[in-house]
Amino acid sequence: MTILEALRWANNKLKKAGIDSPMLDAELLLSCMLQISRAKLFAHFNDPLTSHQQEKFTTLIERRSEHEPVAYIIGHNYFFGRKFHVNPFVLIPRPDTELLVQEALDLSTHIEKPERLLFADIGTGSGVIGITLAAETPTPVIASDTSAQALTIAKHNAQIHQVADRVDVREGNLLNPLLQVFAAIKQTSAKPVSSVYPFEYLIICANLPYISTSQMKTLQEDVRSYEPKEALEAGPDGLETYWKFFRQLQQAREHLPRHVYVIVEIDPSQTRRMQQLITHEFPSCESETKQDLAGLDRIVVTKL
After folding, report:
1. What is the mean pLDDT of residues 37-56?
2. What is the pLDDT of residue 198?
């Protein structure tokens, strides 16, 4: 069996299984298995596969035909031009989330004292947000998650991208790890936190679960059956986790730096309710919704 014949076979099998992009997925799996680029794959269509290679490729296609995501099969996905390790303990990075990162980067360029800026990545998962921010800027990052398995992956990705010294990975629920840092500082000084902590500005990024219970039933099988439910679903309206997040933020506001910005990712249908949620906790805040490349509301930027 040649490379071209293998791709045609895989394309037909995946198409029958209802895979949306059968040929693309077949190409990605075969090029990964052979450890060559897709471009090189195309240049060697007539090269034969060994029996071992055929057997291995068949196994990969069988897994994909069961709707297991390609990223989990090959063990990585790309985000902001970088390769990140992923597995079923973490969500697969989405292009839409790059908008959140870009907004944080743009915002950081307007900080008057960038040397006194801190990024926080709440619900970091594989670490793509926090690690990208650390890789793109000299700014330190605190990245937190409730999942120890996810944090293992985040730490691994931070090492791969050589930012482990600037990404402080901590286990805990929502803002707790971040608040513990500031609480510890307050306990060691009688002065206000803002006068003893080296950070005057804080940009909090949060891509928390925002899929409603009813929406979960409509998701593609690739997502519904394989990606971690706890990182996707957030109650009847999808905002349960964000309610807890902003309430916790409001209760702890006096312990945080003077200037705090919050950037969150949402479902386009949640715009009005998210604005209500935020203003309920922070009536005098400045909040703005921004659209993704499809023109859909995707992130909300708030200055507390």
Report:
1. 93
2. 74
Query: What is the CB neighbour count within 10 angstroms for residue 46?
Result: 9
**Phi, psi dihedral angles at 170 (to 5 degrees):** -135, 145
Please give the radius of gyration of the chain, using alpha carbons only, rounded to the nearest integer.
Answer: 22
Q: Let me know: does 264 contact 121? Beta carbons within 8 Å.
A: no
| Cα dihedral: 172, 175, 255, 248 (round 10) | -120
Degrees, nearest 5: CA angle 77-129-90: 50
Nearest CA among 280, 135, 105 for reference residue 203:
105
Confidence of residue 181 (pLDDT cuts 50, 70, 90): confident
Which of left, alpha, beta for 113 (phi over 0: left; psi -120 to 50: alpha)?
A: beta
H or E segment and range at residue 37: none
Residue 194: pLDDT above 90?
Answer: no
Nearest Cα residue to 138 out of 179, 167, 160: 167
Side-chain half-sphere CA neighbours of 265 within 13 A: 27
Say what the pTM is.
Answer: 0.92
Query: 9-19: per-residue pLDDT in tens?
Result: 999 999 999 99
Please give the pLDDT value at position 196.
43
